[in-house]
């Protein structure tokens, strides 16, 4: 049976899924990334995942797609990754040589949101944006049904500046969306309030140095009326509304898909306020025709998107 | 001889140019728009321009392209124009029926910057942005060599929000790029300073109610060290740098073309500061590979872009 693999290579885990010809899942395998063991260690883990999937009987591998956190060139070379020991590493070539099939590599958020787009199965929606709000903020641009990557790094919605000379961002810039709306920004805001002596249900969560606050914990505190949490989330929603308004003015898309942990945990709850803020920032007449929806694939989005990425390349061959 | 017409339909003037098969100019015609005479009056003027061009001997008309200020649907229907008495007006259909040839209609700034892009004759540059800074601010998005319009209204770079809750904008929003960087914003800023009793070389220019300040006058006062003008222009450049940084983070384009009256008059002068501000707002590694250039067609960009727009459709047929 013909089959294709989608790989979601994260900083801590690698998920591989083997898909059949109709997109049905045939097998899945998960391994630790072992980022501390260098490039060779990571590659060994990737190969273990692939080899496990390829042990399924009677399959003929057609191609491998992969999503990876970091800057990936339009040709599939990993230029730089903040969480993986891969730099100027041609992962696409490596996979092609080792497994002898066409391969494709993209940025993890680009790929995951492309997966969410393909999952919609709405070929009538050609121009779509995917906005990902999780530990960081990212996105994907779909133009005429295809993932647009520019020179490879496009779709960095987290670094759309919403407030010039605003909050400092990890990228070295100021006022980026990510500095307000990411889970990390929410966490930092709450932590700053704790340091000022304010009370919050999330006091111990945010004070645990090194740990990343859970989206579900934020959602829970928000729902229970925790003032500090509400302030942090409202600040995030304000920035998201500004960014979404701008994105509508720039792309005039047919649809925006909202994904990532924060949206999964509290997107529906934040919807009315988010729409209101977006409307304030988009041009008259442009927002009404934009369908806003939520992602549905959860943790499988990355692997599914990687599968769709290589499927798209196979079709074009 | 086979020929194609490009029309630049402005609020005050209509420019039509007849192009031969190699893009050479065969004839041109300019008429007043007569916007005050309603839709019929404007159409009559458009037809006068077209009929004059069609009186050239021995030509066989292949198609008509047009750029028009306002919101144009992806199908070429004028949804709304702030300066023309055309609303929900299917100009494309009108032209096709009257002249019996394929026609295309787009937003004037989209079309003009597409013209600048085609004028580069650089097929290796596939993903390019055109940023137009004139009385207003607009732009064009080129994806894979084609003009991207989304549902028709894409490329509204003037309504990229650079400062949430910032300066009020004509669109009803706040903090839009246009509210800082357009000639109108520069004029308003200088006028506000005059009202506060400050001295400026442009005092009489900005105080003449209803008149639009000339880009050349701004450039002149800036060069002569006029403090108020320098403040207004620096504020514009700061906002442009924020916007260009964001645009690079979103699109990771190969090139940005800067056009419009303000850029024509003082782009070269502002270049160092603009680049410096853009670098502060774009992600590390993304700006280095973006070629920034200036538009070259001046007042002919609209007609030339309209010609290229219909040529592109004719090729695809």
UniProtKB/TrEMBL annotation, chains A, B:
Top EC group: transferase
Family: Belongs to the ROK (NagC/XylR) family.
InterPro entries (alphabetical): ATPase_NBD, ROK, ROK_cs
GO MF entries: glucokinase activity
Pfam family, one: ROK
Enzyme Commission number(s): 2.7.1.2
Protein name: Glucokinase
């Amino acid at each position: 049976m013909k089959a294709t693999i989608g790989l979601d290579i994260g900083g801590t885990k690698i998920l591989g899924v083997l898909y059949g010809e109709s997109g049905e899942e045939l097998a899945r395998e998960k391994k630790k990334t072992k980022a501390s063991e260098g490039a060779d260690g990571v590659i060994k883990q990737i190969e273990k995942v692939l080899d496990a999937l390829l042990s399924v009987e009677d399959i003929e591998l057609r191609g491998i797609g992969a999503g990876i956190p970091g800057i990936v060139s339009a040709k599939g070379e990993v230029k730089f990754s903040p969480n993986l020991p891969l730099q100027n590493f041609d992962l696409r070539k490596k996979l092609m040589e080792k497994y002898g099939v066409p391969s494709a590599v993209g940025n993890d958020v680009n790929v995951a949101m492309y997966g969410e787009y393909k999952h919609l199965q709405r070929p009538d929606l050609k121009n779509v944006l995917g906005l990902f709000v999780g530990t960081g903020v990212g996105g994907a641009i779909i133009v005429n049904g295809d993932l647009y990557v520019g020179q490879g790094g496009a779709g960095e919605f987290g670094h759309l500046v919403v407030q010039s000379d605003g909050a400092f961002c990890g990228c070295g810039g100021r006022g980026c969306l990510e500095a307000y709306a990411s889970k990390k920004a929410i966490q930092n805001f709450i932590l700053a309030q704790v340091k000022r002596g304010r009370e919050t249900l999330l006091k111990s969560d945010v004070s645990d140095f090194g740990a990343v606050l859970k989206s579900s914990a934020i959602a829970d505190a928000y729902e229970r009326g925790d003032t500090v949490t509400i302030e942090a989330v409202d600040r995030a929603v304000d920035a998201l509304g500004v960014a979404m308004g701008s994105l509508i003015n720039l792309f005039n898309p047919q649809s925006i898909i909202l994904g990532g942990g924060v949206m999964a945990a509290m997107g529906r709850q934040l919807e009315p306020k988010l729409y209101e803020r977006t409307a304030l920032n988009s041009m008259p007449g442009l927002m009404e025709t934009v369908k806003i929806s939520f992602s549905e694939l959860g943790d499988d989005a990355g692997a599914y998107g990687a599968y769709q990425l290589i499927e798209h390349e196979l079709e074009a061959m």
